Amino acid sequence: QQQVKQSPQSLIVQKGGISIINCAYENTAFDYFPWYQQFPGKGPALLIAIRPDVSEKKEGRFTISFNKSAKQFSLHIMDSQPGDSATYFCAASPDGGKLIFGQGTELSVKP
Amino acid sequence: EAGVAQSPRYKIIEKRQSVAFWCNPISGHATLYWYQQILGQGPKLLIQFQNNGVVDDSQLPKDRFSAERLKGVDSTLKIQPAKLEDSAVYLCASSVQGWETQYFGPGTRLLVL
User: Fold this and answer.
1) B104 and A103 in contact by Cβ < 8 A?
2) What pLDDT, on the 0 to 100 scale, is given for residue A65?
3) Omega before B81 within 30 of 0, i.e. cis
4) What is the mean pLDDT of each run of 10 residues along chain A (111 residues)?
5) Distance of CA A107 to CAs A3, A22, A40, B88, Å?
6) Torsion-angle region of residue B57: left (phi > 0), alpha (psi -120 to 50) or beta?
7) What pLDDT is stored for residue B2 in this prediction?
8) Spans of chain B, pLDDT less than 50
9) Is B25 on the interface with A (CB under 8 A)?
């Protein structure tokens, strides 16, 4: 019940395309859903986050879509660029508790 | 603003040896975390400090792992003795307060042979 399941494990997208990464959770106590971006040899960096009182949050080319009833949330990267090539992790936190991370998605954007 | 600093960046040891990692959080951040990230997986929290007190160490293998945060600033994580399955990247993160907006350091990559 504490798991966050992320898919796909890897994703290849052409430059200018849309990258979509999905996450699902079971614990209804989760109330904070961040996405982290990690480049090789670096630590994860917070990209964007959402709380369940909204269904969508957009920051630049990055959008989180949140479906509370389905217990799913997703990251959309519009106009994907080679510089977006990285590993993306979704995470969830229950009511101020610790972050539970998904398994990660390795995104490769081809020029 | 300086980020989270960690050292060493890489460490190779034999099993049953001991190893220690150091973390210096962002200045003024009260909360410090140690995560273990096994290759191909997401980070897993080992321990959380609030100032110099432990908030959560439920996933820390206490028979071999120990951590301390003296004076509420720097922190060290120790493994003694190391096992093959401890091979991973050990990430330190800090936040002003609480779980949100955690800033991660570059990590220490540990290989146990």
Assistant:
1) no
2) 96
3) yes
4) 89 98 93 94 93 93 95 97 97 83 96 92
5) 22, 13, 12, 21
6) alpha
7) 81
8) none
9) no
Predicted pLDDT at A1 = 59
pLDDT of residue B99: 67
Closest CA to B110 of B7, B4, B44, B13: B13
Q: Cβ separation of B99 and A93 shorter than 8 Å?
A: yes
Can you name the residues that pair with B7 across neighbouring β-strands?
Answer: B22
B100 in contact with A, Cβ within 8 Å: yes
Residue contact B42–A104, C-beta within 8 A: yes
Minimal Cα–Cα distance from A13 to chain B, Å? 20
d(CA A58, CA A76): 9
Give the whole-angstrom CA distance, residue A82 versus residue A100: 28
Around B35, how many Cα atoms within 13 Å sit in the side-chain half-sphere? Answer: 24
Q: From B49, which residue of chain A is nearest by alpha-carbon distance?
A: A98
CA distance A49 to chain B (A): 9
For chain A, give the number of residues: 111
Determine contact, residues B102/B96, Cβ cutoff 8 Å. Answer: no
- Residues A104, B40: C-beta atoms closer than 8 Å: yes
